[in-house]
Specification:
Bound molecules: magnesium ion
Shape: globular
Strand content: under 5%
CATH architecture of one domain: Orthogonal Bundle
Number of strands: 0
Order of helices and strands: HHHH
CATH superfamily of one domain: MazG-like
Number of helices: 4
Structural class: mainly alpha
C-alpha cells in the first residue's frame, strides 16, 4: 500500500506561505512573541488550515493520526535510547528533542480534534479526577 502517512504534520515548515481555502496564509501568525498566548484550540485551527491547504483531510483519519503519533513517539524514544539519564542536553539535542515532542503534540491535538474531543476540557477534567484519586498526603 502507498505511503498514506507521507502527508504528515511533522515535516511542516515553520513559516508556510500556502494560502488556505479561506485565503488565510498558513504558518505566519504564531511566531512573533505571542507564543505564550496560543491555546490548544488555536493549534487545532492551525492544523486544520494546514491540512485544508494541502487537501490532506482525507488522510487524517483517527487511525492514521494515531499511528503517525505512535511513530513520532518512537522517534522521541530514540533520543533517549541507550543513553541512561541525560543531565545536560546539548543545544542540538534540545532542538531535536523539541522537534519530536512537537511532532507528538501536534498529532495528539489533531487526533483529538478529528475525534471531536475538546482536549483542553478533557485534560483539565483528567487532572481534577487524578487529584481526587490521588490526594496529597495529610
Ligand atoms: Mg518526528
Amino acid at each position: 500500500m502507498g505511503n498514506l502517512l507521507q502527508p504528515c504534520l511533522s515535516h511542516a515548515p515553520l513559516h508556510d506561505n500556502t494560502l488556505t481555502p479561506h485565503g488565510h496564509r498558513v504558518g505566519d501568525d504564531f511566531r512573533d512573541g505571542e507564543d505564550e498566548k496560543i491555546s490548544l484550540k488555536d493549534f487545532s485551527k492551525k492544523l486544520q488550515e494546514f491540512a485544508d491547504a494541502r487537501e490532506w483531510e482525507k488522510y487524517h483519519t483517527p487511525r492514521n493520526l494515531l499511528l503517525a503519533m505512535v511513530g513520532e513517539v518512537g522517534e522521541l524514544s530514540e533520543i533517549f535510547q541507550w543513553k541512561g539519564e541525560v543531565e545536560n542536553w546539548e543545544e542540538s539535542e534540545k532542538e531535536h528533542l523539541g522537534e519530536e515532542l512537537s511532532d507528538v503534540l501536534l498529532y495528539l491535538i489533531r487526533l483529538a480534534d478529528i475525534c471531536g474531543i475538546d482536549l483542553t476540557n478533557a485534560a483539565l477534567n483528567k487532572i481534577h479526577k487524578n487529584a481526587i484519586k490521588y490526594p496529597p498526603p495529610l
